[in-house]
Write a structure and sequence with these properties.
- The protein is of the alpha/beta class and 375 residues long.
- It folds into two domains: 253 residues, QueA-like; 84 residues, Thrombin, subunit H (Beta Barrel), CATH 2.40.10.
- Helix content is 18%, strand content 26%.
- Strands 2-1-17-16-14-3-12-13-15 form a nine-stranded mixed sheet. A six-stranded antiparallel barrel has the order 5-6-7-10-9-8.
- Helix 6 packs across helix 7.
- The longest helix is centred in the last third of the chain and has 14 residues.
- The chain is globular, with a radius of gyration of 21 Å.
Length: 375
């Protein structure tokens, strides 16, 4: 059966690859825009090795560059069981209302409904803030109610830690100030993400000014990144995987810029898989056009998305993608594979070939790693 066949079922194991452990970036590049950039030309599969600040050479006047401006919150908390003195680690996932959150707790077996926890501050000292486990869902997440502050969100800088992914290892307090600054984009605004939109980490304010000076329109969407984005696909079949919901919002200004560009046949360049998912989700929600490969008019919108993009997929909005190098078997790797060959399944091999080249040239992988530009 041809690799190009749209109907060929994809198995999760086909998105696996071997990565030397030393290529998993543990710290960011000394300067944001000094990370490396691998450029992939989809039509020819040609690859170029560049520095990230060279991205300006691939952007044209009239392009619309769209970035995710969600702010990462210090979502990792530590506390003590009021009754037993046992230790808990809490990862906030989603706010339901002020002081009402869904979260992951470790050890989960001890976080029964009714458990009360005293939070420690960033120095390890017990605070006046308490949290009670008030519910549990089918995924094992706990619903928490905070008491003490008017809104725990406003006090997370005092009690929370940067929610680094597990493949970035730290001893207590190591690189904490560096991570607070660098596991955050320079344009982050609305708080809500528990993982960074990592493609945006490479941009500096100066680089964005240079891009604007070249006649590129820079605008933003907001998608609050949850841990489900980075979770490995555990089902044998790719199509059986279910995405976690993530909240997103697109402003009227951004929608207008995109509409004008699509009418003029100018390119939309998405920075990050989260930005791409937000834009393509809104395209599918439009009732104006049901034809694939056509772009319906965008409009201001706020909702949640569970959109899972994998080969084959027809893209309606985004024409180029800036992204990082992603984990094996991840939904992000599958999305990039779909983008490498829209409407086909051969993009998987194109991306795995690009990753093999990156490994040969010792690129750094994952959140603090280098970048990939797909044109």
């Amino acid at each position: 059966m041809s690799e190009n066949s749209r109907n060929r079922p994809l198995v999760t194991s086909s998105f696996d690859f071997a990565l030397p452990a030393e290529l998993i970036a543990q710290t960011p590049a000394p300067q944001r825009d000094q990370s490396r950039l691998l450029v992939l030309h989809r039509q020819s599969s040609q690859l170029e090795h560049r520095c990230f600040r060279d991205v300006t050479h691939y952007l044209r006047a009239g392009d619309v560059l769209v970035l995710n401006n969600s702010r990462v919150i210090p979502a990792r908390l530590r506390g003590v069981n009021v009754r037993t003195g046992g230790q808990f680690e809490i990862l906030l996932l989603q706010e339901n209302a002020p002081n009402d959150w869904w979260a992951m707790l470790r050890p989960g077996k001890r976080a029964r409904v009714g458990t009360e926890i005293i939070l420690r501050d960033v120095r390890g000292i017990k605070s006046s803030m308490r949290v009670t486990v008030v519910g549990q869902n089918a995924e094992g997440h706990r619903r928490l109610r905070f008491s003490g502050p008017q809104n725990i969100l406003s006090l997370l800088d005092d009690v929370g830690e940067v929610p680094l992914p597990p493949y970035i290892t730290r001893t207590s307090g190591e690189h904490s100030e560096l991570d607070r600054a660098r596991y955050q984009t320079v344009f982050a605004l609305p708080p809500g993400s528990v993982a960074a939109p990592t493609a945006g980490l490479h941009f500096t304010t100066g680089l964005l000014d240079t891009i604007r000076a070249r006649g590129v329109h820079v605008c933003f969407v907001t998608l609050h990144v949850g841990p489900g984005t980075f979770a490995p696909v555990k089902s044998e079949s790719v199509s059986a995987h279910k995405m976690h919901a993530e909240r997103f919002a697109i402003s009227a200004e951004t929608a207008g810029l995109i509409n004008e560009a699509k009418c003029d046949q100018r390119r939309i360049v998405a920075v990050g898989t989260t930005t791409l998912r937000a834009l393509e989700t809104l395209a599918t929600l439009s009732t104006v056009s049901s034809q694939p490969n056509t772009a319906p008019p965008m409009h201001a919108y706020s909702a949640s998305t569970r959109m899972f993009i994998h080969p084959p997929h027809d893209f309606r909005i985004v024409d180029a993608l800036i992204t990082n190098f992603h984990l094996p078997r991840s939904t992000l790797l599958m999305l990039v594979s779909a983008f490498a060959a829209p409407g086909q399944i051969c993009g998987r091999q194109i991306i795995l070939n690009a990753y093999a080249e990156a490994i040969r040239h010792r690129y750094r992988f994952f959140s603090y790693g280098d970048a990939l530009l797909v044109l």
